[in-house]
Fold these 3 entries.
Entry 1:
Amino acid sequence: MDAAQAGHRLDRVLAGTLGDLSRARIQQLLSEGRVTRDGATIKDANHRVKGGDVFQVFVPPAAEARPRGQDIPLDVVHEDKDLIVIEKPAGLVVHPAAGNPDGTLVNALIAHCGDSLMGIGGEARPGIVHRLDKDTSGLLVAAKTERAMTSLAKQFANHTIERAYNAVVWGAPRAREGVIEGQIGRSPFDRKRMAVLRGGGKLARTRYKVLETFGPEARPLASLIECRLETGRTHQIRVHLTHLGHPLIGDPTYGRARQAPRPKTTEEEVAFAAAANFPRQALHAFVLGFQHPSLHKTMRFESPWPSDFAGLVEALRGLT
């Protein structure tokens, strides 16, 4: 860098020097740790340049425009010529996006169903009618024909799909069952989070029922809840339960750990540790029901808890 550039922001200087990269792209590369100076990674776009500084910018090769099939094992619950229902494990991203260009459910579906899936519902998310968050486990349906895609999409839009989730949350709601309602949109304080807003956003409704509480009746440490979606907004259950004051155990975005009392027994120690160290949001999609687009009959599937979720509940039951 020459003396005229000294004192200026790094992202602005790099964008001016590298004319084929926009300032926004430079900022992205910085945040991904792809800019170095003398071998040290620089992530701060506001870093002030000094005369004589030498920076290296590593630009990764462009991602493929179309997702490709990858041999990723699928737990298939049901499959026919129109659709496929799978058990999505926690940790599997549904479709390619920034940060997850491959290794997704879409890549697995293309390999499993063949390239014919690519024409269903668009190239970016072929066959995907709805999604589950990366660390949410449970049932998901994907379309294999345009007819199925149209039918299922209409059912989701009309809120006639049956979807039920089990969640383990910190504490327990005062009302054993109820409806959480509120407009959900991007948080004005953190654009990576969703929030219940006073104005704007989209209407969201979640019905919940407390199935079991863990710990002293007067102040439970945690509870097992069933949630049924009447709408389908991004992070809806996670946002609504946090708004209610009972975030999901293990939720890195909306959750918060509770200070557990000093354990008096081995069972209590195991329970507190299981809750505090649970590595993902404790949310599992255990029921999925819909009208089959060709058979014109109701299809309904139930999913058992995965081992990590079952282990968490079992450990918490040691408190009662």
Entry 2:
Amino acid sequence: MRSLALASMVAALTVVSGASLAQTVAPAAPPGPMARARYSLPWNLRPAIAPNLVRMDVAVAFQSAATSTATLLTGGGRPFAALPDLGLYGRLGVVTHAPDQADGRQALVNPLLFALWTPQLAPGWRLPVFLGVTVPVGAGSDSSPAQRATFASGVYTRQAMDNALFAADYLTVMGGAGVMWMGHGLTAQAEFTVLQLTRVWGETVNADASRTNFTTGAHVGYQLVPWLTVSVEAHYQRWLSDPAAVVAAAPAGNPLRRDQFTVGGGLRGNFAVGSALLRPGVAFFAPTGGFMNATDYRIVQFDLAVPL
């Protein structure tokens, strides 16, 4: 009897231990879509976590003499299961420009192809690295002055943070990096980008064979409740080279095109739909100086991001 009881106890312990081990090694269930809402997605900065993503955002710029819009569609994701922090993306778009007392026009932007590598350095910390290139086919090298002005209007409509998309006749290679921390409902991130523009055609209308640009920005967001995030964001752009337009403006007492600085913020919703997360948002931005301030730019941005 004692042997039977001992054998029963050993068998029971084996079953319990096996169940505990199974629970230990069993893979955790994948997080639901609302887990992605803990990250405050920036407005004009790059994501610091490489997502599977479809996104459309529309910036509407009101200024003293015109109204412009820039509509961008971004899509892509992580193509390699073995590299979950690497994302490959493409961006297309259209810009419209309506000067006061004149007919409006529209133009396609330069397509952008880019990669994001966002490794986790430590719990809550990531180091996003960016590399991209544009294809200079947006405005066309032989387009009219009005059409080229429409194309260029997207620069300030996007707060001078996406210059390469609106650089007619220039192929642009760009790279940058940043840092992000996320925890306790708070997201804080910053980034910088260097853009090297090389003229591929349009010598008769563009005096610069090459241009070098620099952008940087910071974003802070807080998840007030699971379905609502509030954020603030700042952007700064500066020409590192001396483009003809900047040099020509300075002697006339107008050094306002060298750099731009804008600040603003907005609200973003977080709504789970099946396995997807709908993240609609609206934000407002204004300049603090430079050409944008001199011409009374005020920008409203509407955004719908769908991380999958």
Entry 3:
Amino acid sequence: MRHLLSFVLIALACQAQEPAVTTLDVNQLILDFDNTIRAHSQKLIAAKSDAERATLSTQFPSPDKLAPTMLRIMQEHPDETSSMTAMSWLVTRATQLPQGQIALQDLKDKHAAKKGLLETIDFLSHAQPSVAEPVLRIIREKNPNIEEKAAATHGLGLCLFGQSEGSPSDPKSRAALAEAVGYFTEMVTSYKDVVCRGFKLSDQAAAMLFEIENLNPGKACPEIEGKDSTGAVFKLSEYRGKVVVLVFWGSWCHACHATLDGVRTSVQAHADKVVMLGVNTDPLETYKQLATTQNISWRNWCDEYNRGPISAVWNIRHWPTIYVIDAKGVIRGKDVSAGQLDTVLNETLASP
């Protein structure tokens, strides 16, 4: 019995001396994982054929191998900053996995009032509404920190706005949009000076209010004026009289690679009545290299980064984003998928 007691005491002492996982350790795990994604992205950009690109698109590094480690860190070190970092990673990068679901429940039950949730809130703002909305409401209600409360308010606006799109005549959609407008207005009036992760959330909320008012189907689209890769200035209004398929894209965007060829094919089927124009978000030199190595047959404004002046005015939040604009300059399709494009084009061309 004496020997057993000694063994237990030694084991407990060793356990007590085991160093806690630091935030630095967790950040290194995350950096290593992100570096594998960056390396894979470079392979995708350098792919020499559509077949190679399609194969690489199915082979992106998965979070499933790292998720168990992150869950262990989260659960074994609940009072360490590393636990919050691990929880945020699981919620933002592994939501579809069991470990991500556990982290999401922990966020609602134990962490909703804590500081350090900005990255998680930002992710939830664009996540599946059924998952995100209840969590954002809890954070908005319980969190005393102004940055987290403001971010959750803005996130709720984005979440509800997403629910309102697609069925504007549906009463539930109209109610969601009205509530979203209320949250965005609150951001502009009550949180106008709050800076989160380097940005004023009130500016982003104002951009959402502009989008709601000006960038939906049935609205006359704003003018675009900018330079192409040669430095020549041109305007969207110069193409009145033709239907315009307007694509916001960049070579860094994986989904763009799978979309652009289909868009070009749809436009070419109506070449006499439809024109394709792009807003490219690559650095100018990168775009010029692309123009010499790939078949970029449509004219582009060079915005040079993904919050460039044109993309910012049009409040682009994901890429590619496709608009269809009729011959009179009225928006007929917003955020159109490549699979929907033929239908939207045919409807637009058939309209008086």
